[in-house]
Amino acid sequence: xxxxxxxxxxxxxxxxxxxxxxxxxxxxxxWPYHLEGYDLNSPEIKGIILSGxxxxxxxxxxxxxxxxxxxxxxxxxxxxxxMQLLVSTQGGKVVHTKGQEYGKALLQVVxxxxxxENLAGDIVCWMxxxxxxxxxxxxxxxxARTENCEYAAIRDETGKIWGVQFHPEVSxxxxxxxxxxxxxxxxxxxxxxxxxxxxxxxxxQWIRNEVxxxxxxxxxxxxxxxxxxxxxxxxxxxxxxxxxFVDNGLLRKGEAEQVFSKMKEILGKERxxxxxxxxxxxxxxxxxxxxxxxxxxxxxxxxEVFEEEAKKLGDVSYLLQxxxxxxxxxxxxxxxxxxxxxxxxxxxxxxEHMQLKVIEPLRFLFKDEVRKLAVELGIPEEIVWRQPFPGxxxxxxxxxxxxxxxxxxxxxxxxxxxxxxxxxxxxKKLWQSxxxxxxxxxxxxxxxxxxxxxxxxxxxxxSEDGMTADWARISYDTMDAIxxxxxxxxxGIGRMVYDITSKPPATIEWE
Length: 511
Ligand code: XMP
What we know:
By secondary structure, this protein is an alpha/beta fold. It has 14 helices and 20 strands.
């Protein structure tokens, strides 16, 4: 399959470049700029995009352009810092201009071809630069300018090397998609082959080659990633796959039953094992108040339960995981993995003595691509569009100690929140929406009676990827309906509040 390589020089927009390329149905991968352990010469690589950077040319430790890029003879598009690198390594001149042009600018296209083919007139573009080109290398010419920038886009005389000082990947450059697509299709001659059907076909083949006749085990959480990974793998190797669904007693109302019955329906009942481990989890976290401690105990208990169940299956060689591309990108980040705010509980940390090889068929997919795959695989809508749910479940939505009573209160509150929000058109735009139980009592009055009950929190956020989030502007009527119903119908809650904090500085979950 045709492939574009995006070299990451450490820009906040690198992932966005990859998503834009994939939206054009062209497969791409993000590689670290130094190329250690990577080979650009493979014939399926049709072009190279150089990302921007938080460095400027000339800064100490600024990343440099590895010689293999130009030696490969493949088409190259440099974006911002990437363009400046192309200029400075080939004899041009780049100067520091921090803060000179930042934000929207009007691009006058001088040459209507190549990346600007069919794009006439002035184009709005987004500049963010810590330097600018003062002199072009021999053989280069300017093909677009802005008021403050003579060399806003350039190309070399062979038409293989292109550079843009602005960011075509951001939505503030409305025609950016056309510019990138011109580079992909006109200059690199890529074919639009990256479609759900082709991904499924390719991954099924890959799983078969990898696993051969061995057995695979998978921990199903009911989220779209683990379910898609399981269904895809089932299509590839059928009965060699067994899924284990661990009910930790920390799931939402009706969730365990729903996930289990759906999965039996899709994969067949022999392929899914249900393990009720609620008691084990609840007794392990009994009396524990510290959030990190809770998370660690839940993670550890999960591993114990899963290991015990997996052992019963006999000679299993592989562990199937629903790891997706953002996790992979983070692990190859040129700045190293980002600092973890919380110990996330995923199924990654299985003990080494289990000696399972890991298989991750979704490791090159973004969430929206996983969802498209899921639809193509016939996975029901309610799973495809299920909101993310944290591994430690409701335990991180009950502040302090988790008890059966509190879990019951939270489940009932959460159920009403979900019912009411689903009636609102905003529901489909929400990244997550849920209740949080704050076991602090406040005074109320019902009829002539004074009440003294817990505080319930409504949390609803919009987000692209969970890394940052904004609180959702849900309507007053919806809030009103939720507050009335929760306080009337849930015995333990006397007051509802709405969390109006974005991430950062707050996190999405309360613990
Ligand atoms: P925070 O609360 O850190 O959450 O803003 C960001 C996103 O991650 C989810 N989350 C988790 N997911 N295991 C998971 O698989 C976890 O331990 C975990 N903790 C938080 C959270 O729901 C949000 O979508």
